[in-house]
Amino acid sequence: MILEIPVESYNFSAAGEAASRVKKTLQRLGIDSQLIRRVAIATYEAEMNIVIHSDGGKIILQVDEEEIKVQAIDQGKGIADLELAMKEGYSTAPDEVREMGFGAGMGLPNMKKCADRLEIKSVVNEGTTVVMGFKNQS
Ligand SMILES: Nc1ncnc2c1ncn2[C@@H]1O[C@H](COP(=O)(O)OP(=O)(O)OP(=O)(O)O)[C@@H](O)[C@H]1O
Ligand SMILES: [Mg+2]
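^ thats the input. predicted complex w/ magnesium ion below
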């Protein structure tokens, strides 16, 4: 199955809905709850990065026998230095976003911990594609 969910830039009242829909879909499919937890956390972080750091994009969930794949695709400023962006504590989040509790610089490290594979492609001033794969145990 495949599910595509749009994600709006800077819409903080809708933020988290994509991750929540991914979670519900996996629950309906009867996926192991520990696995769902990892996918939901990583998807939430990817979704928030679209909300905070891009001009908007989408989350795509694909489930097959071997793997659960979550792609976060956005248009926007992109990531100039991926290695730096992956460092715990590195964040370019503006003050108004930090005041809402984001911007710890833990999203990408968290995604790496949760996913079995993480692939990031980014082009400055075009956008970013994050691909996360989780081994499907069911
Ligand atoms: N989709 C994206 N587009 C552009 N820049 C991004 C994107 N995702 C991450 N970044 C850059 O990488 C940095 C680190 O991302 P990360 O998710 O680890 O931390 P954060 O979003 O700043 O804070 P937190 O996730 O802890 O709330 C961001 O501050 C931003 O500069
Ligand atoms: Mg983040």
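Residues 33-53 form the longest helix (21 residues).
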